[in-house]
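Sat 14:20. Reprocessing the chain from the morning session after the first attempt stalled halfway. Input below, unchanged.
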Amino acid sequence: MTDITIFHNPHCTKSRATLSLINIQKNNVTVIEYLKSPPTKKQLQQIIGLLGYNSAHQLIRTKEDIYKALALTPTMDENTLLNAMLNNPMLIERPIVLANNKARIGRPPESVLEII
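Finished this time. Tokens:
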């Protein structure tokens, strides 16, 4: 049985669908409501690496109002982008699933099945 962590937003349809899919697979699932308990900077950096992303910007929800309000751009330095996500966790793409030293964004939810 695989240990899985999901950074989850219960108000998000895709996040709920991904959690349901993982639970159907009967795995050991740790659910972290990241809006209440945001990941640390180190965790964000690890997630970005596990996703194979080149930039923290790839993990940011660019359509959120706070993204525009903070005037964030893809060319900003990593520290600025990470701090923006730490201070405004709504900016973090969701849901993020970690399993078997890999990570996937659950969009679509079925994309997480390749790592569990």
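Residues 1-34+94-116 form a domain with the Glutaredoxin fold (CATH 3.40.30.10).
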